[in-house]
Write a structure and sequence with these properties.
The protein has six helices and seven strands.
Length: 164
Amino acid sequence: MAPAGPNRFQRAMRSSGGTRAGSWLYIRAQDQLDEPIFRMTRGRHTMTSLLAGLPVGMLRTTGARSGRPRQSPLLIYPTSAGQMVIASNYGQARQPAWYHNLIAHPEATLSLQGTDHRVRARRLEGETRSRIWREALETYPGLKAYERWAAGRDIPLLLLEPVS
């Protein structure tokens, strides 16, 4: 049986992320709420996954400059190419810090639904990027607003490929 789609409340939560007020709130609250809920549920849920029905994982990277371990709760987009993250940064002018970490050190650990996976990030380009972007918009329409707000900043899509 296929998983149920988002309910009415979850669709409203997803839509709110594509508004200035919603993104302002999520920028300030997501990390502070996602991480404790992630720990309490042993990696099975985050605030975002519960409220919006979106798959959120914890990505553990190596700091681009510091070399120290870093952890970020991120939407994990299931696509036809595999698990993907998008460096939208809520449409802000700069790329998120975790993006720079992955470019400098592409190998990371993704904790998703209670399981850790070793992954290597690969940036998508060209037609593949365009196709996967359209798939991501179906999961989270707020990306369209982020693209407008980014005002010309390239929003990278990174495929998280399994490392054996």
